[in-house]
Amino acid sequence: MIITCPYCGPRDSSEFVYREEGGRIRPDQASTDQAAWNAYVYDRVNTAGEHDEIWQHSGGCRAHLRIVRNTVTHRIVSVAFARDHGRPHERRKAETPA
Amino acid sequence: MREYSAYTLLKNALAGNRDWKPAWRKPDPKASYDVVIIGGGGHGLSTAYYLAKEHGITNVAVLEKGYLGSGNVGRNTTAVRSNYLLPENHRFYEHSMDLWENLSHDLNYNVMFSQRGCLNLAHTPGQLDEYVRRGNALRHSGIDSELMTVEQIKRLVPALDVSASARFPVIGGVMQWSAGTARHDAVAWGYARGADRRGVDVIENCEVTGFLRDGDRVTGVTTTRGEIRAKKVAIAVAGSTGRVMKLVGIDEMPIESQVLQAFVSESLKPILDTVLTFGMGHFYVGQSDKGGLIYGGALDGYNSYAQRGSLPLVEEVHSEMLALFPGLASVRVLRSWGGLCDMSMDGSPIITTGPLPGMYLNCGWCYGGFKATPASGWCFAWTIAKDEPHPLNAPFTLDRFHRGAIIDDKGQGATPNLH
User: Fold this and answer.
1) Is ipTM over 0.90?
2) Helical segments of B204-362, H only
3) DSSP characters for B297-308?
4) Nearest CA of chain A to the CA of B360: how many Å?
5) Which residues touch B193 (CB under 8 Å, ≥6 apart)?
């Protein structure tokens, strides 16, 4: 499987580490909603087909990537920087004083 | 029901082998059953067998989308062991071991269960300490476990590189002598025949495409061979759990489907009469009666439903094998296989009623489902028949993740790569 890193170009998948499903949003740190936390920690969509996921180019530029990949055919549909996709990064940025 | 015996073998040999019956019929699905089991792998077939044998429920169909034994039950590394850390797992897997020990007699089918031991190698003092801890936990539960020195290991496995100059020198190990291997195909075939002879319909090439519902209650399935109604629908589909659960409208589960590869080498003279695991990576190997080395390693590391593995893992597994057995460098690989594993978030299985009325779920086997085949079916059959779990599988609920009652044998937290 070849993943095309936006910085580094096409690289073998062994340079990358799969991190997690892309669509999951961590509850706010102050949240006491137990069900929401449990769902965030344990539940997975586990799609057969096009799957939204976060990878890290750990053997390269170390950027976190948001990848859509077909889990049946292993075809990579799209690769982008995870930071361009909002939370939790978006929230951190918003909370950083200017 | 001694269909296979020395007497029948002799009689049929003299009669030209014309009187053997097929090991199971090829029935067409009926319109309805008491119980429909989705998945004709080891767990589905053993569930059907124990439903019939232990609970007298014989109006049962097992639906298999391919041919019988075409999934993980026919393509695993055949290891059977019960050397876990936690008491819930001890009780369950030791029950499995008890069933394994009498399985060939019970099924009247030789599953070639061979208690040749399973040896975990230690390469660091910390790892050896952890093995002592696990070994003591096992002995407290009445399961055999023995710490081995390098000299003992050298005598047991002469081909192993135990020298100080090895890439990861071996400093000891822990052995479960009662562990071993079984012939995986024979397990599927034996359970299928045992269930069939008791009246269960084993239906191949019959893929479930949807569920029949009456409100929340599941009342049957739609398949590629028509609608089948059932009072109870049981799911035992391992790596396809996510796909099948989506058909019934449950989109999220504490499971990821990942690929695990297994390999078989060409036949060799006997060099390894135990199951061996490498401690500095993830690698395990045994030798079959035909002489092939059967071995595997870690998961590919990302979600997959592809039933084929990635090349970097092929290289990693073989480099691990050569770190242990440099003498095998010129051995050729005969075949490999990537199987779908239903990786649960705590490394332990799920055998439960629900999650919907009329439905029963058996999944989360990670990549250790083969050894559990007898106990899984035995407990699942109990759960289906009595609408409540047996004490042995009561801890293995689906909602344990949301109740904080996880069974995390490795103590690693919520990670879908345990076994």
Assistant:
1) no
2) 241-247, 311-324
3) EEEEEEE--SS-
4) 19
5) B3, B23, B24, B107, B109
Structural domain for A32, as ranges: 2-95
Interface test with A, best of B243, B244, B304 (most A CBs within 10 A): B304
- Of B35, B95, B101, the C-alpha closest to B63 is B35
Nearest residue to B114 via CA among B293, B289, B311: B289
B359-363 and B226-235 beta bridge pairing: parallel
The CATH code of the domain that includes A43 is: 3.30.2270.10
Q: What kind of fold does domain B118-179+256-343 have according to CATH?
A: D-Amino Acid Oxidase; Chain A, domain 2 (3.30.9)
Q: Which of A14, A38, A73 sits opposite B312 (nearest CB)?
A: A14
The pLDDT mean for chain A works out to 85
The half-sphere exposure of B156 on its side-chain side, counting CA atoms within 13 A, is 21
B133: CB partners within 8 A, 6+ apart: B85
Write out the H or E segment, with its range, that includes residue A68. Answer: strand A64-70
Domains B29-82+84-109+184-254+346-403 and B118-179+256-343 share a fold: no
Does residue B269 or residue A94 have the better pLDDT?
B269
Q: State mean pLDDT over B358-368.
A: 94
Identify how many contiguous H helices and E strands chain B contains and give both numbers: 11, 18
Question: Residue A34's closest chain B neighbor by CA?
Answer: B402
**A98: pLDDT strictly greater than 50:** no
Identify residue B371 by its one-letter amino acid code: K
Query: Is 60 exceeded by the pLDDT of residue B143?
Result: yes
Q: What is the value of pTM for the model shown?
A: 0.93
Total domains, chain A: 1
pLDDT score for B354: 85
Nearest to A42 among B243, B251, B401 (CB): B401
Q: How far apart are CA A85 and CA A95, in angstroms?
A: 16
A-chain residues near B246 (CB < 8 A): 48
The span from the CA of B358 to the CA of B376, in Å, is 19
- Could A13 and B401 be called an inter-chain contact, meaning their C-beta atoms sit closer than 8 Å? no
- Domain chopping of chain B, boundaries: 29-82+84-109+184-254+346-403, 118-179+256-343
Q: How high is the pLDDT of residue B386?
A: 96
Please report, for chain A, how many H helices and E strands are present, in that order.
2, 6
Q: Which fold has domain B29-82+84-109+184-254+346-403?
A: FAD/NAD(P)-binding domain (3.50.50)
Task: Report the pLDDT value the prediction gives residue B19, as an integer from 0 to 100.
Answer: 86
**Do residues B322 and A13 make contact, with C-beta atoms less than 8 angstroms apart?**
no
Q: Residues in chain B, how many?
A: 419
pLDDT tens per residue across span B300-311 = 899 999 988 889
Local structure of residue A13 (DSSP, 8 states): G
CB of B283 closer than 8 Å to CB of B295: yes
Half-sphere exposure of B231 (CA within 13 A, CB side): 9
